[in-house]
Design a protein that fits this description.
Elements (H helix, E strand, L loop, with lengths): L1 H9 L53 E6 L7 H13 L3 E4 L10 H12 L19 E2 L13 H6 L9 E5 L2 E5 L15 H12 L4 E5 L20 H4 L3 E4 L5 E6 L2 E6 L16 E5 L4 E7 L3 E8 L4 E8 L3
Parallel strand pairs: 1-2, 2-3, 5-6, 6-7, 7-9
Antiparallel strand pairs: 1-11, 4-5, 8-9, 8-10, 11-12, 12-13
Length: 323
């Protein structure tokens, strides 16, 4: 699949072949400020909610290497460049922060936007780009563009995820992931007192993994054009989360909010956004090129890097367990 992506990139004018991650650091702090865009509103009734059952731990290896991509579902040369970067790193599995299928989450675009790059990671794959994976190694979250087809039905049909699939959890090695649906069309709600929030609170409290990572599309806090999302400003750290990953704003940002690291990772292929007014809690900001987040996790720590498609390490930090 990687050879096919490199051929795809070579055929695209103006694109360069990405290289695997290097150790070069290149943090950018732009200041341009376009007009912010409002969040989308609901266009169709949501599906009937059902209970979700926590998954059993997946591989028991005490370490895990995984990639995170966000706002990547364009199927174009930018998405291909990010995919080539990710596949060259050979992660055990891939997590997404949403907007998997532009522009409207339609059935006819979902396989070209996702499967042509990542079919080898998708369990139960039935598309046109390969045989898929015997074990699912691709874990998406719903984004607003995925909801733009009524009920997000193409997404729900395409993937084989736990429970009702809109939000779910899974364990891989030392990390327990809680994959939320942050869109306003989620039938179980997105506010702090919602059914979904109660599910997360209970799941975090019950988790016995060394690390608890929350993944969602809309960032609770952002210096980007979409800005903050107050309904999603839950007490994640107080409930037991160790890291929060989001997308939606097409940029990279790392913040420290109430003792919790928040990362916005939306440079997976969609058009890049500008920053508006940097929040005081913003520690790193970047928008100069597309890229992906890479994490190596052990019970003792998580080494985290954002790498652009040129192989440059833009931001790197480590989370360590407290003694």
């Amino acid at each position: 699949m990687l050879a096919g992506l490199l051929a795809f990139l070579a055929a695209c004018a103006g694109q360069t072949t990405p290289t695997p991650p290097s150790t070069q650091t290149a943090v950018s702090l732009p200041t341009a400020s376009p007009t912010a865009r409002a969040l989308p509103t609901a266009t169709a009734p949501p599906p009937t909610p059902t209970e979700t059952t926590p998954t059993e731990p997946t591989p028991t290896n005490p370490q895990a290497r995984f990639a995170i991509i966000g706002d990547y579902g364009t199927g174009d040369a930018n998405a291909a460049a990010v995919a080539a970067l990710v596949l060259a790193w050979q992660p055990e599995f891939i997590v997404t922060t949403g907007d998997n299928n532009y522009p409207n989450g339609a059935a006819e675009t979902i396989d070209p936007n996702i499967g042509q790059f990542y079919s080898d990671y998708i369990g139960g794959y039935a598309g046109e780009y390969g045989e898929g994976s015997e074990v699912n190694r691709f874990f998406p979250t719903l984004g607003n563009h995925d909801w733009d087809t009524p009920g997000a039905q193409p997404y729900l049909d395409y993937f084989n995820l736990p429970g009702h699939e809109r939000y779910y959890d899974f364990v891989w090695g030392p990390v327990h992931f809680f994959m939320l649906d942050s869109d306003s069309r989620e039938p179980d709600g997105i506010g702090r007192s919602s059914r979904q929030a109660e599910w997360l609170k209970a799941g975090l409290a019950a988790s016995t993994a060394p690390w608890q990572v929350v993944v969602l599309h809309h960032p609770p806090f952002s210096s980007g054009r979409h800005g903050d999302n107050p309904p999603l400003q839950w007490p994640y750290a107080g409930w037991g989360a160790d890291l929060l990953l989001a997308g939606h704003d097409h940029l990279y940002e790392r913040l420290e909010i109430a003792g919790l690291t928040h990362v916005t990772n939306g440079l997976g292929g969609g058009s890049r956004y500008y920053f508006i007014v940097p929040l005081p809690e913003s520690l790193a900001r970047y928008r100069a090129a597309h890229g992906a987040l890479f994490i190596s996790a052990s019970p003792e720590g998580m080494d985290i890097e954002f790498v652009n498609v040129n192989g440059e390490v833009v931001d790197a930090f480590t989370l360590a367990q407290e003694d």
